[in-house]
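User
New here, help please:
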Amino acid sequence: MDLIAEAITEAWRLLRTGDNDVYGITLRTAAITGTSTLVALLVGLPIGLGLALARFPGQRSFVALANAGTGTPPVVAGLVVSILLWRSGPLGGLGLIYTPAAIILAQAVIATPIIVAITAAAVMALPPALHLQIRAMGANQRQYLWLIVREARLPLLVAVMAGFGAVVSEVGASMMVGGNLAGETRVLTTAAVLEVSKGQFGSALALGFILLAFIIVIAAVLTTVQQRAHRR
């Protein structure tokens, strides 16, 4: 109990005094996870729409593959990206290993299958008559896709939340491709793991509180957007 009390006291001190390292890590976490979620959305949304709307041989297999991808272990994603970006790897010449860009790439690999699977499921769940109605209105391909996305906007926001949740909470991939370098690639999750390994439970708890608060704020914002979209 004394250890827990000391950890809580230290966490409150760090949060109250505005420790530069803690808040620097928080801002870096926001930038990296926000970018990786955006990249995953830009890649995953079109693929999910294509899987749901196109008709081609093996469509069900690709959908099943996307669904299976939602369970991809972060460590496996980190391993794949590490091999690609390693100095002797195919993309080693880019010099991205142990940089924020490497973490963004690894996290995007984790989040993209989630967004693809939820997007495909959301569009497939729309009433078949809706597609005919949109076509009957004379909509071109761009207008058709826009209206489909608009009708599926609520589950698509769920896809964004799920993708963000997957990247903001992962540790393994960020450690493998980022190296947990102070002032460069250290994020809230990897910093918390490091603090625990050093026995600094107060600092680790402070980082955990900030991470939870960060997730709650983002979830609240996306939920507000979702509820407003539902009223329209």
